[in-house]
Amino acid sequence: MSEFERLPARMADVGGIPVARLLPVRQRRLIGAWCFLDHAGPSQFAAGEPGMRVGPHPHIGLQTFTWMLAGQVLHKDSLGHEQIIRPGQVNLMTAGRGIAHSEESVAGERTLHAAQLWIALPAADRNTPPRFDHYPRLPMWSQQEVCFTLLAGEYAGHKAPTLLFSPLVGLDLHAREAADLTLPLRPDFEYGLLALEGGITLAGEHIDANELIYLGAQRERLELALEANTRVLLLGGEPLAERIYIWWNLVGHSEAEIAEALADWQAGSPRFGTVEGFDGEPMPAPPLPGGLR
Q: What DSSP string describes 23-45?
């Protein structure tokens, strides 16, 4: 019997590009407070194609977390921020009570490769004022010819500057050559592992890209073999001992919170503000199903 849980991706379309969706799934809704994970691309666009275009849409109760690997994307939000994110950078938007934003490939851009994640805000912070933060520089170091980038939290004596509301870690590992690694883990964290490119071997099992591995908690170390040209995302966090609800682009702690936010968006409430400068219409909200899981 396997020592871990294997969660294959579901394919979806976001803004005109294919994405591999890993979280949430029926078997696993959270890893710590990480509650959503899309692997976008790698995609190539022909000359004249618009690339990715995601029109203005609302968020509540979460942080959107974009880790850019290739290409350039322009973020605009209802607080007035306009920010291009480039490879090696993180955009972090804290929705709190409510914010709206758009995302689109920069004009003339021909590639896109990114990990798009959401972090559920704890109930005590769900109504925090919305804000946007851009992180152009993150802690980086090398071990056994593998480049480590710390995206969130603390690891191996390094601390990322990214704003967090619960104990989490996010780590990118890029191996240009094959490597065997032993990674220290926190037993009080639960962890997930995703190969964005290449492949890994874990506990004698081979794992290709776009298969999320849920490792659980109570582990002090992780031994894995990385193939050449492999990029891995390690996510972890203290288990979130709160029930959350997810529908469309909204995260809440009750169905009533989700329903209220949907109604506010459809009514054009000032709660979400207006995204200026996007050449297109805001996204309409889908109807709320009876009984969220």
A: ES-SS---BTTEEEEEEEEEEE-
pLDDT band at residue 291 under the 50/70/90 scheme: low
DSSP characters over 243-257: --EEETTEEESSHHH
DSSP helix/strand/coil, 174:
strand
State the DSSP H helix or E strand holding residue 283, giving kind and residue range, or none if neither.
Answer: none
| Alpha carbons 286 and 45: distance in angstroms, whole number | 29
Q: What is the distance between the alpha carbons of residues 206 and 23, in angstroms, rounded to a whole number?
A: 21
Q: What is the CA 39 to chain-centroid distance, rounded?
A: 8
What is the reported pTM? 0.96
Strand partners, 38: 21, 116
DSSP state of 137: -
Beta bridge partners of 118: 36, 64
Report the candidate in 283, 292, 168, 210 with the shortest Cα–Cα distance to residue 38.
Answer: 210
Rounded CA gap, 234 and 274, in Å? 35
CA atoms of 156 and 161, how far apart (whole Å): 15
| Maximal CA-CA distance, the chain | 55
The pLDDT tens digits for 153-179 are: 999 999 999 999 999 999 999 999 999
Instruction: Determine the residue type at 251.
Output: V
Give 68-93 pLDDT, tens digit per residue: 999 999 999 999 999 999 999 999 99
CA distances from 251 to 94, 100, 118, 150, 243 (A): 12, 14, 9, 25, 11
Give kind and range of the element (H or E) at residue 260.
helix 255-266
